[in-house]
Write a structure and sequence with these properties.
The protein has 3 helices and 3 strands; from the N terminus they run βαβααβ. The chain is an alpha+beta fold. The chain has a 3-stranded mixed sheet.
Length: 67
């Protein structure tokens, strides 16, 4: 299982910062932003290899399930 910020969203935020820097903004003047969207990814093959059973309720809320 992995619970982390959404990488595509993070890349979009980074692109916005790069755009501002290329237009002349000082990097030190840019605000620090917290991630707003997180993803839960579950690897069932790994869980099975470890002898773990993931409840159906957890699988239902996962953003991605790797079988």
């Amino acid at each position: 299982m992995g619970y982390a910020p959404s990488l595509p969203d993070e890349f979009r935020h980074a692109a916005g910062h790069i755009d501002k820097i290329l237009k002349g903004a000082k990097p030190a003047d840019l605000p620090v932003e917290q991630p707003t969207r997180f993803q839960l990814v579950i690897n069932l093959k790994s869980a099975k290899a470890l002898g773990l059973e993931i409840p159906a309720t957890v699988l239902a809320v996962a953003d991605e399930v790797i079988e």
